[in-house]
Amino acid sequence: MKHLSTLLALALVVPAIGSAQTLDAANDLTGYTRFIVYPHLQQGLESMQRGDRNGALAEFERARSLAPTNATVALHLATAYQTFGELRQAESLLRAQLTLTPGDARLLAALTAVRAAMEPAAAPASASACIDTGDLRCTDAQRSSSRRTNTAASAVSATNTVTPQPSAPRRAKAQQTDSLPPLPLEPVEHQGATSQFGKAFMVSLQQHDFADAARQADAWLAHDTSDAALLDGLTYQLLIAGATDQATDLLLQAYPFANRAPAERDTLLQRLIMLIEQQPATLPAERLSPLRRPLDTPSLRSRQAVLWERLNDCGTVRAVLADISSEYAYEDWLRLGDCSSGEDPALAERAYMSAHTLQRGGRASRALGYQAHAAGHFDIALDAWRSVGPQRLAGDELLAAASTAVAAGAIEQAANWLDVYRGRGDALSHRYWSLLAETTLSSDPVVAADALRRAIDLQPEADDYRRLASVEQDTVLQVRWLERAAVLDPDDAGLQAQLGYAYSRSGLVVSAVTAFERAAALAPDDSDVQRALGFAYWRAGLAIGAERALESAWRADPTNHEVAQQLVYVHQRLKHNREARDYAEHVLDAYAASAAATGDARAFADQRFGFQRTHEDLGRRVTVTVDGWSGTSVGTGTSGSQAGSRYQSYAQAEADVRLGNPPIRDGSTVSAYVRVLADGGALFSALPSQNAVLGIGLRWKPWRNQIVYFAAENQNGLADHNRRDVLLRASASFFNGGRAGDDWHASGNGWFSRNLYFDVAQYVETNHSAVTADYRTSYHRKLSTGQTVEPYGHMQINGAKDAAFEHDLRVGVGVRWNIWYGATRYDAAPHKVSLGVEFQQALQTYLPDHNGLFVALGTRW
Fold it and tell me: Can you tell me the distance from the alpha carbon of 554 to that of 152, in angstroms, rounded to the nearest whole number?
C-alpha cells in the first residue's frame, strides 16, 4: 500500500510550470550548455516513450556527462533509472547530486520517493489501495508497478524546457524543439460520483480502446465542470497511453481554454502544440483555423507564433504578433522579423530593431544589418554591425558590414573591416577588391584603379568598369571602360548616358548621340536623359531632335531653367520666334525670382541681359535710324556713313522693315528700307540741307553669325529730279560682338569695345565706286543705368574711283555720350541716342582740308 501510494503521488503530483517553452532546464543550465545538452534530453525522453531502455539511458547519461553538476539533468536520468527498474542506481545518483546542490527541494522529494519505492510492500496492501480501478491514481499506480514507472518525474517537470541558443537558423532550430508533453499541473483525484467515469476511462485505456476512452473523457468533463485540472490530467493520460489523436481532439474541443488559470492554459496550449507538430499533415486546415486567431495575452500569442513558424506559415506568425506588444521577448521579435523580411520589409526591420535593442550583438543584430541596408537605412545597419564586433563577424558578414559602411559614408570604418577580413587570410574575392576600391576612390585613385582591375580579372562586372572609368584621366580609356560596361549591362540607361558624356568629352559627337538615344529608349520618362539627349542633338547640329528631347525634358520638369535657356536657342535656330520668345520669358521670370541667381553675379546679369536682347530682337520688325554730322572743314564723317563721302555736313533718316514671317529667321533677315539723305553741298553748309536724295531698296543679311549686309537701292534726287542712280552696296562689321560690343553691358562699371567696319559701294549709272575701312576702339564708362561716356579713337581709309582712283587715310579721336532707353521686363532697351565730338587729322588725302572738328548725332529707334 505504501509503495503504490508513493508511486501514485509521484506520478501525478507536479508543480506549476512557468516556462514559456515545452521542455525547460530551468536556471541551472547556461545558454551554451543548454544548447548542447538539449538534444540528448529530447532523444532520451522519446526513447523512454518507446520503451527503449538502452537508448534512453545512453542519451541521459551522455547529457549527464555534458552537465555533471546540473540537478535537472540528474532528475531526468534518475527518472529513466526508475522507469526501467534500476532503483538503486536512481538513489545513488540522487544522493550524489544532493552533495552538489544540497538546497534543491526537487532532489529531496525524488530521493524520498525512490527510497519509499525500494521498501518491500505487501501484496494485500497494494490490492486494497487500488480497489477502484476507475480512480486515475490507482490506474497510474498499477501502470507504475508493472513498468517501474517514473517516480522522479514530478521533480523533473517543475522545469521542463531546454531552448537552444541561436547558433543555427531559427527555422532549423524550430524543427528540433521538444515533443514531450508537459506533465499535469496537479494531482487528479476524483472520488465519489465521478469514479464511474474514471473507472471506465482507465479500463478503456488498459484495453487500448482509445475511442471509448475519449468518449468516457468527454462524459467525465461534461459531468464535472468544476474541476479545472481534470482536462489537464485526462489529456496527459491519453497521451502517455499513446492515444495521440484522442488527446488532440479533446484539447481542440476545449481550445482556447478560457476561464482557466494562466499556468494551466499555458500547459494545455503547449501540449496541443506538441500534438499538432507530431501530426501536421493529418489535421485538416479548418480544425486548426481557431489557432490562427491571436489569443488574449502576449505569452500565449508567443506560443502560437512558435507553432505557426514550425508549420512554415509566416502569414499567421505575422498575424498573431501584429500587435507589436512590448512584452514580447527577443525570440518573438526575431521570429516576427524572419517571417516578414520578404513580405513586409518595414515590419521586419522594426522587429529586428526591437530584438537588437533587447540584446545587442546577437543574430537579430546581424539580421537588422542586412534588412536595414536593403531598405537604405544605412546608419541603422551600420550601428547593428558595429554592435556585433569584427571578431564575431564571419567573412561574408564582414564584407556585408563593409558594404554598409561604404553606403553610410563611413569609409574609415569600412577600411578597418576590410583590414580585418584580409588579416584572417580569407580569399580575396571580387567583392573584397570592389569594396577596397570604394574606400579609396577619393583618397587614392591609383589604388582604387588597381583594385578595380583585380576585381575585373576575377569577375568582370559593369559597375566595376563604370567606376574604373571614373578614376581614369585619359578620355580614350574612359570610353573603352564604359563601352565594356555597356556590353555587360546594355539595359542600364544611366550607363548609356554616362557613355554618351564620355563620347562628348572625346569629341565623338555622333557616337554620343547614339548612346544618349539608347539611354532615352531605355528610360523614356527620365528627364535627365532627355535633357542630355537634347544637348547631344544640339552639338551634332540636329535642331529638330534637340527640340523634341528638350521639350520632353521641360514638360517633365518646368523648373529646369537650363533646359528653357537651351530651348530659346533651339527655337531660334528653327525660326520658331514665338516659341523662342516664350521660353525667354520663362528664363527671365526665373531670373526675376532669383531662382538662377547663383554663382558669378556678373555672369548672371550678363545672361539675363542677353535673353532680354534676344527677346527684343526676335520681336522687332521696324527700325528707324537718324544719323548726321557737321564739321569745321571738309571731311569724311565719323563713322563711314557713306562710302567715299566728302562733305562738311551729312545726314540721313532711314526706316527699315523686316520682311517675311517671322521677320528674323535664325539671325538672317531680308528687309525693305527707305531713306532720305542730304549733305552740305558745294557751299559747304554746316547744315546738311543740299542734294537731298530719296533712296528705296532691299537689304539682305544672309548669315546668323556674321554681321554682313548686301543692299540694292534705287536713288532719286528730291531737288534735282534728273539725278537718278542705282546703288549696290556691301557692308560688314567684325570684332564687335559679345564683351567687345557696343550694346549695353549689364555687369561691371564699364567695358572696352572695338569694331572693324567695311563698306563697298558701286553706283551703276555714274560708274562711281567707293570703299571705306574703319577700325575703332573705345571704352564705355558707365554714368548710370543706361548711360555711358565713350572716349574712342579710330583709323579710317577711304577710296573713290571716278576717272581715277583717289584715297584718303586719316585718324580721329573723340568722345560720345550714349543713352539706352525703353527697356521692359522682357526686352532690353530698344532705343539708343549718341552725341559726340571728334577731331580728325588726315595723313594722306585728296580733300582740300587736312583736319577738322566734327559734331555727330546718332539715334536708333
Answer: 84
